[in-house]
Amino acid sequence: MRPISLPEIPYGATAARPEWADLPAALTAAIELRLDGPVTAVTSAGGGFTRAFAAVIRTATGRTVFVKAAAEPTSHAYAREAAILAALPEGIPVPRLQWTTEVAGHVVLCLDAVDGTVPGLPWSPDMLDAALRAWARTGSALARPPGALLAVGLPTLADLIRSDLSCWSAIAGGHAPPPAAAPGWAADRFARLAALERAAPALVAGDGVLHGDLRIDNVLIDRAGAAWLCDWTWPCLGAPWFDAVTLLVSAYASGLDVDRELDRWDPPPGGIDAALAALSGYWLVRASGPPSGASPHARQHQRFSGEQALAWLAERQGWPTGARR
Question: d(Cα 304, Cα 181) in Å, to the nearest integer?
C-alpha cells in the first residue's frame, strides 16, 4: 500500500454557509409555508464549495427534508440543478427533487433528505465500493438519457476538456505560466503532459450522461451502507469511466489500488492517463489563483486534488518524482 495523503481540511467541513437565521424573513416564511409547519431544527451541510444555504430541515410536524437556497451568482446554478433533477430517471441513487420555487431573490430546492454522511478520508474499501457501485448503476441508467434530460442542454465532456481542461497545452505552448502549485519535477514533463491532455477529448467521448463533478463530498453513505450521489449541477455527455477516475483521485490519496478498481470500467488504452493529465492541469492552475470567494478551502481542495492526480499519473508513467508532497 502506498503512503496515505490527507487534505488540510476534512471534506465534510469545507463550506462557509449562511445559517437559517441569516436568510431573509420572506424566504424562511415561504419555505415554512411550503413545508406546512414551522422549522424546529436545521443542520447545515458542512461540505461543498459555495456560500449558499444548504441544510437538513425538520419541522414541527415531523417532516425532514434537505433544502438548498441561493441568490445570485449561485442561483442560476441551482435553477439548472432543479431542471436536471426533475429530468433524471427514477430508480437511481440520487435524492429526489420534491419542489422548487423562487422567492426573495433566491432559488430554492427541496429534496429528499438522506440520513447519511460524507465519507471520511482515507476511504474505507467498503464505502468506496458502495460509491463506485452507485455510479455504475447510475451511469448504466443514463447510458441512454431520457429526452427531458437532454433538453436541459448538456455540454460534451470532450468540448469541456478542449475549452477548460487544456491547461498543460497552454503552458507547454508558452501561452500561460506554470502553476505555482505544481511540483518542481513537472517542469520537465510539460510537453508530455500536454500531449496526454490533447488525446483526452477523443478518448472520453460518449453519449451517456455523466455527473460531471463526482468527488468524495458529493457522495453520502446512508445507515445501510448504500451510497447516494448528490449535487447534479454540472452533468455532461461522455464516457462513464471518466467520472470513476475523478472519484478515485481521493482513493489514490487513500493508498488504495485504484488501477484495479478501474478494471471494471474498461477504459480505452491511454484513457486514464489522458484524463489524469487533463484533471491535474486544471486543478493545479485553479489552485494557483487568488483566494476563492466561494469557499476559503476551495484552493486547498484544488491543490490536493491536482497533486494526487499528477502523482497517480506519474506512478502510471514511471516518472521519477522524488518524495511525495
Answer: 9
For residue 70, is it within any domain?
Answer: yes
Q: pLDDT-based confidence at 121, cuts 50/70/90?
A: very high
Q: What is the CATH number of the domain that holds 23?
A: 3.30.200.20
Who's near 129: CB < 8 A, 6+ residues apart? none
The residue segments making up the domain with residue 130 are: 117-317
Provide the 8-state DSSP code for 181. Answer: T
Which residues on adjacent β-strands are paired with residue 57? 42, 65
Q: Let me know if residue 293 belongs to a domain.
A: yes
pTM assigned to the model:
0.95
Q: What is the DSSP string of 193-247?
A: HHHHHHHHHHHH--SEEE-S---GGGEEEETTS-EEE---S--EEE-THHHHHHH
Phi/psi at 76 (5° precision): -65, -35
Q: How does strand 97-103 pair with strand 106-112?
A: antiparallel
Averaged pLDDT score across all residues of the chain: 95
Burial label for 291, CB within 10 Å (0-12, 13-18, 19+), is exposed
Q: Tell me the H-state helices in the chain.
A: 25-34, 75-87, 125-141, 147-151, 157-164, 167-172, 190-204, 241-253, 258-262, 271-287, 298-317
How many domains does the chain contain in total?
2
